[in-house]
Amino acid sequence: MNLDDFTKLNPKDIGNWPIIPKVLALCGLFVLILFAGYWFDWQNQLADLDAAKEKESQLRETFISKKKQVVNLDTYRRQLKDLEQAFGALIKQLPNKAEMDALLTDINQAGLGRGLEFELFRPANNEILSEFYAERPISIRVTGNYHDLGAFASDVSRLPRIVTLNEINITPSGQTLTMSAVAKTYRYLDENELAAQKAAQRKSAKEAKK
């Protein structure tokens, strides 16, 4: 068949068409049905299928993550217990409010025990509050020889409570040396102080929202 034969076909009498035009017409109709099905229905279903596959992947990852947590639950509990014990040990190194005066005495005695002469020992009037502890700076100035000053610094570092020496400055003073420093002591906040601090934070947050 040539092109002229196709132009002579009667669309109202498809049943009498030759076999080749019939096959071509059926193929064209099949392609048209497929396209119409995809356009009006299948493309939405495919999009839903892709979304379902992505959700399945996310759920699978979540399941694997939760499963690992369950498998390692005992390990996490032991780690938490270890952290609580370590935190408790650190807290024990912080004196409470009633023990601060004794700590100040310990620092003073550490210097006197090394034969140092205190020219200045002035605890700050105000404490610097943190989340669960308070920091109190103490300005000190002591005079003595090099070895005694070093021994004093070592003694302070070995106190049962946490004390740090900061802003250290050593200058010659005749036959001796003078060391100026800021010793910082720390104490933990009691329950009343923690409650007051949280109340102040909530109040500040409310005022900030206004």
Order of helices and strands: HHHHEEEHEEH
CATH architecture of one domain: 2-Layer Sandwich
Secondary-structure-based class equals alpha+beta
Give the overall shape, derived from the CA principal axes: rod-shaped
Strand content is 15-25%
Q: Look at the structure and give the mean pLDDT.
A: 78
Contiguous helical run count: 6
- Assigned CATH superfamily of one domain: Ribosomal protein S6/Translation elongation factor EF1B
Major sheet = 5 strands, antiparallel
Question: Could you name the CATH class of one domain?
Answer: Alpha Beta
Global Rg:
42 Å
The unreliable regions are none
CATH topology of one domain: Alpha-Beta Plaits
Number of DSSP E strands: 5
What distance lies between the first and last C-alpha atoms, to the nearest angstrom? 87 Å
Helical proportion? 55-70%
